[in-house]
């Protein structure tokens, strides 16, 4: 009977062990995926009928984590999103999530991942003329 209990325990834990990611996400991979998600989220908010009337005038958000100008771009966009407080759509869950996630990415890049990130490009114009998704 004890053999069956051990066999059952091993068989029930095997899928959990095999499904666990072998490599935890690095700081770089986390920043890269957050930047991609934020770029897509901002584009979706500009197209969404509920938020397009107040997000339509916002500049397109393109976050290239390899560009040194991205930090300035994020600071500017955070202040623009926080400036939407007097408008009705600024209080929607999606717009607040965009602002909070953007601030979180800024903190990750400036404090937590500071030594892990390398800026290979310094071209602010690229971030401005990106057409979006």
From TrEMBL:
Source species of the chain: Eleginops maclovinus (Patagonian blennie)
Annotated InterPro entries: CYTL1
Signal sequence coordinates: 1-19
Alphabetic keyword roster: Signal
Protein name listed in UniProt: Cytokine-like protein 1
Signal as UniProt keyword: yes
Keyword Magnesium in annotation: no
Transmembrane spans: none
Pfam family, one: CYTL1
One Gene Ontology term from the biological process aspect of the record: positive regulation of transcription by RNA polymerase II
